[in-house]
Amino acid sequence: MAFEFSATHINEYHAQGYTVLRDLIPATLLSDLRRVADPGRPIARRLSGGNAQRLQPFQDHLDRRPFDTLFQLPALHAALFEIFGGLPGSMDGVEVDGDAILYEPGDSPYCMAWHRDYRDLWPGVDLAKWQRMMHDPRMFNQSNAALYDDGALWVVPGSHLRRDTPDEIRRFPVRPIPFPDVGRMTPEEAEYAGRAYCQSMPGAVQAWLNAGDFMVYRNTLWHIGNYVPYMKRATVHGSLMTPEYRDFVLQDFLPFVKPPRPISEFKNLNVGTRAYREAYPGTVARRWLGTLKQAPRRFARKIKRGLLLAIGRA
């Protein structure tokens, strides 16, 4: 079935914080993307271990051309114009791009921690500035293009419009929010524990994508990834990068993670600072060093090395 845009996509994106452009990717292009993306799976595992979540930047290893075709699809740009075009100055100079392919784990199930990007993942990011920017439609827009069926992402619809609720703080008072501890579990126990952890967030829903779907979402949403080895995955992850978003990444984000710094330098940086506790009463500070020790190795490694976003390879 060919993709058809409707006003529902506009309403979903602004009310829920995400919308799914169903069947956006033509079948012939989907075939080309799978052919190029699948060989990246063993490369990612060779570079980052058997449970590697992503290959990034994939263009260092794979043919970029089918992905350029994806990001330049006329139907995609027409849909984005409709979604964002009515907002004054919202998407001037936008670049639809991506440099990561997300894969299923090779060894065992695992689950990330619930988070809002930047605020909860990176020590030292200016919380007050993030809060001022979280409602700016030019900022914090991301995309997932599923080459196979993908049920890994969970979100809390509408959470991009507000701060944390008392129920959310009661469920996860410790910040950064701890990862679920599945270290000594069997694969089946870890799968159950990951799903229960996702479902425990008030209002959480699974953002299911079929092969060929293209999801656009606000990364200021509460969201999380939950992964199982038996479900083949290759999802192209990208950003809708505006000049304003690029400036934020370059000035407020990358200085903390690129060039990489020794993990010991993070030990005194708390997301649970006084500013954070004042903004979110009821939260409890937890040292970033403890968070990184408890996190899955591939995630801690990503923090230590730095995350390359779609910013022109800056």
Tell me what you see in this structure.
- This protein is of the alpha+beta class and 314 residues long.
- The chain has a single domain (7-305), classed as Jelly Rolls, CATH 2.60.120.620.
- It is built from twelve helices and twelve strands.
- A six-stranded antiparallel sheet has the order 1-9-5-11-3-2. It has a four-stranded antiparallel sheet with strand order 4-10-6-8, covered by helices on one side. The chain has a two-stranded parallel ribbon with strand order 7-12.
- The longest helix is centred in the C-terminal third of the chain and has 15 residues, at 243-257.
Tags for this model:
disordered C terminus; four-stranded antiparallel beta sheet; 314 residues; Jelly Rolls; alpha+beta; six-stranded antiparallel beta sheet
Mean pLDDT: 83
* CATH class assignment: Mainly Beta
Envelope shape: globular
CATH topology-level fold name? Jelly Rolls
Helix content: 25-40%
CATH architectural grouping: Sandwich
